[in-house]
Request: fold
Amino acid sequence: MEYETVIGLEVHLHLKTSTKAFCGCSTEFGQEPNSQTCPVCLGMPGSLPVLNKLALEHALEAALALNCSIQEFTKFDRKNYFYPDLPKNYQISQYDLPLAKEGYLDVQMPDMDKRIEILRVHLEEDAGKLIHKDEVSLVDFNRAGIPLLEIVSKPQINSPEEAYAYLVALKSVIGYLGVSDCDMEKGSLRCDANISLRKKGAEGLGVKTEIKNLNSFKAVKDALSFEVTRQEGLLQEGSTIVQETRLWDTREEKTISMRSKEEAKDYRYFPEPDLPPFIIKKDMIEPIRQRIPELPREKCSRFMKQYGLPQYDAQILTVSRAAAEYAEKCLQQQGVDKKIISNWLIGPVSAAAHSRNCGIEGLGLLPASLIELIRAVQTQQISNLTGKSVLEEMLLTSKSAGLVIKEKNLAQISDIDSLKAEIDAVIQENQKSAKDFISGKENALMFLVGQVMKRTKGKANPKVVQDALRRRLTDA
Amino acid sequence: MDICRFTASELIEKLRHNELSPKDIIESLRKRIRALDPQVRAYVRLDNAPFISKVLENVFTPDPTRPLKGIPISVKDNICTEGHATECCSKILEGFRPPYDATVIRKLKEAGALILTKKTNMDEFAFGSSTENSCFGASRNPWDLAYVPGGSSGGSAAAVAADEAFLALGSDTGGSIRQPASFCGIVGLKPTYGRVSRYGLIAFASSLDQIGPLAKNVKDAAILLQAIAGYDPLDATSVNASVPDYSGSLKAGIKGVRIGIPKEYFVEGMDQEVKEAMDEAIAELKRQGAVCKEVSLSHTQYAIPVYYIIATAEASSNLARFDAVQYGLRAVAQGHVQNMISLYKKTRGTGFGEEAKRRIILGTFGLSHGYYDAYYLRALKVRTLIKQDFERVFAELDCIVTPTSPTPAFRIGEKAQDPLRMYLSDIYTISVNLAGIPAISIPCGFTRKKLPIGLQVLAKPFDEEMLFKVAYTYEQNTPWHLEKPRL
Reply:
């Protein structure tokens, strides 16, 4: 029996506002526990929530970028459950009238594009954090009340890889807007996954499990892959799937049962009486729509069209907005082939950024300086390999490519006359290899080229050396 | 004459003319409370802690920007006062000292008022109509100590009636200011929902609660409302509308004012003496030139069930925060907590009184999966119908007049074992909260046993001026507000 995987993702994003959703406390990450609290976010009796307008605007911006229709009439609801990290023992959330509905996100898969529809987008508040220490449990309420955006996809994701690609695309779009850091490590992006299997071609949905405790995109993919295998195994042997919540155990790399549907909670949602319902008028939406920048997919196609880049390159260069804007400044420089600029950006420049834990735009490398370096390689003033070390030196010292090449005397030697002595010496010292080449062993020539490069400390132009050696040995 | 007998407006005059100092006022008040409160029990936690949190000036200097300068104000135990116990007369909030003032307290302090740190008694979390549900025990009706003062703001009402307070703040969710005012023969007003900030009022039912004044006469009630009314950015449900000068509405007569008398309110269950007092009050209003007309509020019969579904639902959620994590009672000793659930159960099991538990369970039930549509959602729909009843009447008339309560005060213990009968005593006050409109209760007579009877006036949203106009005119032509209980 062949099965089809059906996945739906619930993503929670911390919205980037300087103050919390319903009070004036700071949202800064990593501060002294409970230092960013007030009667409102501590849920003290008598305190009342007041909606942070910026959180609403960020939420609307994200919803618009995800092609959702904004609901004109919306309200908050209380989700009631007891938990020590929840100061009021209810969460202010949205239930039957979410802020936005019916959007979509286009996701790039290796073989095709896929449109994944978004069911709803709503605004809610985050809870505090429990810290378990030896015999005691402590609560840090700094996070309590930070605005959260919940984005729920329809069950239209058909593989763990698609789920991964969806998250990457979502993070990219949200990152472009700048409304969230989308940092899973800091908890500013969290994801729960619903997964079920059904017979290939079947209409209805199978029994699903919900997976929690997913702390990286990779964990999402791995946990879903594990579930596909687990559920398929059960179905193949004729067993049934239990509808339940399962936790991903990163160390054991498996999902474990947390609670079954029978124990499922009744959240007793009802309209939040402390916050009157509100009408979102067109004149509030339009200025927010104007704010939305060119999004990754549009930018990618434009890069392909405008700079003649292959899709692979354009896609990598446009994942982050800041990087894409930097890349575009480089691509706009004259006199160098766009594809070569792209190769440099995706290759050595990205590698340097990666090792510094920043984006390519964060290296402090001026586009003009990068182009100067690329030109030095293109004109064979330096080799490709030397180019990479020059880049490192430029990043370390902030010197220009020209200056680094000059100071370190790195200019490539392409003049045969100045290489003659070295070539003679190498042939002299490696008679055997020379003979091997003459008798037809092509590999021996590369060995000799390497020896010349070594003697010249990498400055010799390998192409010139190779030609000269070949001529010398075959003419002899 | 005992200073405590004065009204707030008289005090203001006497302070202005330097006939009294704030110190004199506080001293006499302290003395009177010490002498009378062991019987009346209007205040709670009397033995410890200071009386007011402010150092008093010996010489009074008038300040036109501080109209309540030197005037003591008593506060119900569910309104937060910074640094002073605010426990809603519940064991579960034992030792809770809010780190902040309610907006009304801040406003009163800014107006120069002296806030009594001793709070007035109430039914636990305002759940009740008699103050018998207080963890500190019941307050007494100053007119007859065997009777309840009403509730839930019974402590505030008894204090004002016994001259143990000049002005008091109460809260009204279903009649909790007006019913005790009527039982104690004083004036009590529930403002329009949104007129007064709820910030710092420990919530019972958020969509119904309002803070309001209890006073010796209509003028004093207007003075206190003036000081606390207005938009508050900290309360999203407070309404951003200008507050009129209420003292201005105290002069006008009521000639031509159109008054509705709802026929649904004059039915079985109404005490005969209350009915007679009502008939007489309506006759008096007519003599003053008002035009009275019978009207229909056809959904009145549903008000009590609707109220008890909505109010308990909101309460069950509002009271969820009392969980021993941050403040209040913790029924399990440090180091002996086995798990969270047992801590919750022990704390909430011992901390809440009977009525609180009853309402939490009722409210939780009404919101539960499978029952929500039949109870909560339906109640919301009927609430809209009740609101529309009033809108229809107010499209043609200026105000509505009703009794405040179907009976005068009842004996302590009389209804304590019968919650349903207790709930029914709110029948005339509850619709007002469901509709969000303002209403005032003023004395309109006494029973043969010398228990006060209250007249309720209702007006359209934000028309508190109409309430003052009608109430003041009635008061100026009747002697009831001048009578004092013998203590």
About this structure: The mean pLDDT of chain A is 86. The longest helix of chain A spans residues 217-236. Residues 446 and 466 of chain A are 8 Å apart (CA to CA). Chain A touches chain B at residues 39, 42-51, 78, 80, 82-84, 87-90, 135, 139, 266, 268-270, 273-276 (CB under 8 Å).
